[in-house]
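Handover notes (outgoing to incoming on-call)

Open items:
1. Auxin-responsive protein: sequence verified, structure written out, both below. Nothing else pending on this one.
2. Nothing else urgent.
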Amino acid sequence: MFVKSVKRLRVMKSSDARRLAANRTQ
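Auxin-responsive protein structure tokens:
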């Protein structure tokens, strides 16, 4: 369970970073 939560957090962080980059390019 702990590993799954860590992976989820990592995915959320990466998606957030991508979103921020997209907003900047716009």
